[in-house]
Amino acid sequence: MEVFIALFIGFLFAAATFCLLRRSLFRLVLGIMLLGQGANLLVFTSGGLTRGEPPVIPGSEELLSSAAADPLPQALVLTAIVIGFGVIAFTIALLHRAERSVGSDDLNQFNQTEGKP
């Protein structure tokens, strides 16, 4: 299962890089979203993948009785997802406003508007 997750993470990073190298605003936002999700998945899998084993130590024991996923990466990913939604919403609003000002989706058009009111 870890191999498939690693391949999927690689696919997400490759797709994000491809989208970020395009000149379209829509693909720029899509690339940022894919890059964020790939990074979240990478951090999530770094804590280990287990099924049905909660990382809770029973009151009578001092250590976990079986292998369990590390809850710290899960908490970090949950926080990153919430922050990522906020960043994406701000990016979409900012790029929408810029696209309305310039009148084009092409990023090269943004360079030609310097000095214009």
Q: What would your notes on this structure say?
A:
With 117 residues, the chain is mainly α. The chain has four helices and no strands. The longest helix is centred in the C-terminal third of the chain and has 32 residues. The protein is elongated, with a radius of gyration of 20 Å. The N and C termini lie far apart (55 Å).
Features:
117 residues, mainly alpha
The termini sit apart by: 55 Å
Mean pLDDT: 85
Low-confidence stretches: none
- The ordered string of helix (H) and strand (E) elements is HHHH
If helices are DSSP runs of H or I spanning 4 or more residues, what is the number of helices? 4
Q: Main sheet, how many strands, which sense, barrel?
A: none
Fraction in helix: 55-70%
Strand % is under 5%
Silhouette:
elongated
Topology record:
Blueprint: H1 2-20, H2 25-46, H3 71-102, H4 108-111
Structure described in brief:
The protein is mainly alpha-helical. 66% of the residues lie in helices and 0% in strands.
